[in-house]
């Protein structure tokens, strides 16, 4: 079954405020006080978001299937 919803989380303990995610997916991440914040927790599947999660040097971004909690990114499944 293909999920239509993903859950995006940024771990503030890991984020170092590099801004890579906001550059890769400006519609999904913004820097607030030198830390990234996901603009929406629940999103439609997005290659930009998996690219951002895969690019994060701290692996601070986690993308999971909102229905079955399967981790989509980072990891080998991080492609649409
Ligand atoms: S790429 Fe990672 S470390 Fe850099 S701002 Fe985004 S979440 Fe933080």
UniProtKB/TrEMBL annotation:
Keywords, ordered alphabetically: 3Fe-4S, Electron transport, Iron, Iron-sulfur, Metal-binding, Transport
Keyword Iron-sulfur: yes
Residue ranges of every copy of the 4Fe-4S ferredoxin-type domain listed in the record: 6-35
Cofactor: [3Fe-4S] cluster
InterPro entries according to UniProt: 3Fe4S_ferredoxin, 4Fe4S_Fe-S-bd, Fe-S_cluster_ET
Name of one Pfam family that matches: Fer4_13
GO molecular function: 3 iron, 4 sulfur cluster binding; electron transfer activity; iron ion binding
SUPFAM superfamilies: 4Fe-4S ferredoxins
PANTHER family xrefs: FERREDOXIN
Task of the protein: Ferredoxins are iron-sulfur proteins that transfer electrons in a wide variety of metabolic reactions.
Name recorded for this polypeptide: Ferredoxin
